[in-house]
## 1
Amino acid sequence: MFGDLHNHSRYSDGSLSVRELMAVAARLGLPVIALTDHDTMAGWAEARACGEEKGICVIPGVEFSTRDPATGRKAHLLVYDPEKPELLHPYCEWMAQERRRSAEMMLKKIMEKYPIDRDLVLRCANGCVTIFKQHIMLALMEAGYADQLYGPLFRQLFGKDGMAYMPVRYPDVHEVARAARAAGGTIVLAHPGEYHSLPLLREMAKAGEIDGAEYWHPRNTPQDQEEIARVCGEYRLLKTGGTDFHGSHGDPRYPVGSFVTPEKELRAFLNRVHRDHS
């Protein structure tokens, strides 16, 4: 048994619908899959129903976008199957509003230079609970101004010095972790290597704020994995794995199931999830 515990659908910034994502997982023979859209739980009921229909185990999850107050850097928390998800709804709504605010301001700047309109962006964001930069880029691709999502135009517009860059205000990672603990979720620090979050991993592990860390992930280097394994061993944390799948909106080298949680670690994870509900 193995499972891919990190996947995104069209409800956030993925390209596949939940049903399409579950169909791919079933065709692959993937026994366990988690739906972990950014800052939304909108796809959970649909994912569970598809899982029952296709005979696969679906773990509902959410990837919260947060900020490490010590460094100001982004940090992502994966929260799986909380017993009281309503305690996390305020953070989902906060991020939906923040992304809409940021997108509207970015779009205003971009429309001054490129002849796209809001309706085209909304069509590209159809099915999503908010608007991401990717949806604006899809509109620009539809209008013929780019031939790839994350190419030169993306960097020109949305890089730190980009002409349309507009920061999003993220909640404090420790605050979200406390809320996730109160909600009865299993809490995993996502891809600690990506945002240079290894010191944060140790800090949160020592404080008992997390249950695990994402070890198998496309953007964790071997050096990252050494430290993640060290911290997980020292604080008896779960080690999880997932592809961070986004479909055509992500890295084409990594389809669903490219990075998985092996059987031993997956059983420990499932035991933890079930324990939180006992």
## 2
Amino acid sequence: MPKKKKDENPTPETPQEPIPSEVVDTAPDGKYAEMLDKYQRCLAEFDNFRKRTTKELADRRNDGIRAACEKLLPIIDNFDRALSTAENKEDNFYKGIEMVARQFDTMLDELGVKSIPTEPNSPFDTNLHYAVAHITDESLGENTIAETLQKGYIHQERVIRPAMVKVAN
């Protein structure tokens, strides 16, 4: 059996105790305090940089989601129109279109995109809805939604597309 050299299995070194600050503070010209200040500033700058880049990446991701959804929304609208005008709801073609429309809805939900609520007789909100017509209807309240013409979508409190609605009274 070959002999082991001393360097093959070095024993772990005992950690050195930190130098007390009173000893280091007596360094000539206050170099320790200056270097400590630079070190602390560098750590703070790096922490700020890390937080800023994390936020910027999240913002870019959200902007990308919104941009992609803007391109997909006309396609989703066409699927909804096809479903609403279908005569035979038992037809396999109708069922196929319905499955694709559900897949789009699931995809939007997974991305955090929600449709803007536009139930009839709900209040009209200029931040979420776009009024394209005004009607007089005594059965509906003042400044309420009478009909939804096109669905609107929102992502993380930012409107991707406002809902187009008819407003009553």
## 3
Amino acid sequence: MFAGLKQIFTSKNRDLLRRILFTLAALFVFKIGTSIIVPGVNVSTSGMSFLEVINAMSGGAFTRASIFALGVTPYITAQIVIQLLCADIVPYLADLSKQGGVGRRKLNQITRVVGIVLAFLQGYMYSFAYIGSGSPMDYMLYSLILTAGTALLMWIADEITLKGIGNGMSLIIMAGIISVLPGMFKDLWVELIAKEFLGIMIFVAFILIFVAIIVGVIYVETAERRIPIQYANKSTSMLGKQNYIPFKLNSAGVMPVIFASALLSIPQILSSVLKKEGFTLFVQKYLSYTNGTGLILYVILIFVFAYFYTFMQLKPKEMSDNLNKNGGYIPGIRPGNETVEYVKTVLKRITIVGATFLTALAILPIVFDKFSNLTTSISISGTGLLIVVGVALDTYKQLESQLVSRSYTKGRRGRK
């Protein structure tokens, strides 16, 4: 790893170094934007802790009522909606998904438009919680500012993808989460230093828990269930290696937590808008994370979305058809329906493990806040670490592949 990083700073990889510096500069602009507060907004957002995931992804911009308060969440939601509609629900979108590069570009444009619309709708709903009592023009102005902030972030993410290194959307989310960690550790140290030796021991234990979570996330993110495959008229010895289909243990990533949080946030937002005492008490009693029913519902939603998103991403029927077209098969399993059922069974089993791990990460900050006497700014966000580790691993793999590709190209030129 360190050898690869050292190779970046050699004179032969100046273009790659420029890409990295451009990425860092773009992320710095994002960080500055998270500190710019929308004028005339009440920054007190107590009672909005049900959106911890969105706040973490925006680098704390949500609780600060920043121009980047929504982050890139509306675009991510739009992507999921378009993916669902492409599954033969809307024939036009389904046809575009099968048209290769041209179709993907059109789908990307449609996704952006849907993302902007969702940003405006979300901004309008959140404006009631931020502004409180205001005129319709106040709500409209705040919604437009948040929409413009999301549109700017989408453009910055595109520039990172084109001119930088890694996926722009993912890096912005990762940067937002990382940016709040130093402040959290600082607050923890200030709060515990008064307890002298005991406080220092608690601080060390907190750090060790963080490290243990990171190690666990790395293990799960890199864990795979490999299904061996063979091709007609080709033996393993002829190919030189065993072919297989890799399935990640947590194929859904952090999306189920985002979906579950967003769904449970709807009643909270409605209670802020309607201001009906009976409805507000019902939401706080039965739909809040701090209560048993709300927590159980949260866990159920995570499991449901984990299965849903996994099977939406990894389609057993398409896998079976692609294997048949290429003359491939799973040893001991007949092609066709048996292959489809076998893949479904494997996905169901590994999704149980992945969803359980994801649920543990999601409820970890809730349990921590319940039993600790620390301030609300200090928490152990397992889902945040899951995002950071996942994006970091993907970005490093992309960086490593570019270094290998450049070395291979230069080696061929040298031989010529």
## 4
Amino acid sequence: MSRADYFLRRLLLVIPTFLGITLLCFAITQFVPGGPVDQLMLRMHGMGAAGGESSGAGVQGAVASQEAAEQERQAFREHFGFNQPLLKRYWKWLWAERCGMLTRSYKFSNKTAWEMISQRFPVSLIFGLTSFLLAYLVCIPLGVAKALRHGNPFDMASSVIVFIGYAIPVFALGMLLKMLFCGTVENLWDIFPATGFHSQTFEGMTFLQKCRDILWHMLLPVICYMSGSFAMLTLLMKNSLLEQINADYIRTVYAKGGSSARALWCHALRNALVPIATGFGGVLTVMFAGSVIIERVFEIPGMGNLSMEAIVGRDYPVFMGVLALTSILGLLGNIFSDFCYVIIDPRIHFS
């Protein structure tokens, strides 16, 4: 099979895979308890979505007749379209509502799912793309340095630091950084802002001041973003390069009079990057991966917070919009990873 045929087949497989993912999740959201119909019924009977109203209101709701309650439920189901067949509702979501992007939010009826996503998307994109690029720009050179100094004090000291950072959970690292550097604990440093993406006076700043303000807010969250993949990428790069350095073809380079620099930089490094290319496709989903916990800790208005709020609040149009966007970018990201394989090593063939 030629590479063109392989990539064409992969692109065609995106369609049924995307349909399968979204149809399954769409069906689950229609039948999971606690949906918008149940929440409206609770509010109508004075109990509130969180069950925080007075017991007297709860008693009044409890004594309502079963017949009236059923009529209310059917009216709400018709309002949200839940009385229609599942496949008909899914087709409407997929085609007429453009994968739910034109569907109005249950929580904010004056906004569509796309309007809410487009407000949060740039923030998560900046955070995710920055952390993705920094992770590879730091981990690849560090992995090469560790491989060239395998077993010496630099290798051991850097391994200790890398594993300590990897062992700390992301939320714990975020809270620790806030405690140490954001003034949340008395008598400790108050250097960085504890929450948000920019300051309240952001609109009145000059362009350079805005850039500095955003970078100042991003520093600690980006460290948390990178911590999860930092150790894995560094050690993967180191071990991959060590394996290539000890390969037979490197000995052949030396036997033909090639220098160490040529053997390393022109031959071993390129082949060592092949396993690293597995994560290149993640550049298309960097605004979603690992962002929920970090955005909750630092109160960042990004896609992670939006998806969590949509799930907890049963705002299914927004959740399905985020899911559709995540799914298509993830599927295309896998194809992009395969494409990177071919660019790095043209000898790779797909069967």
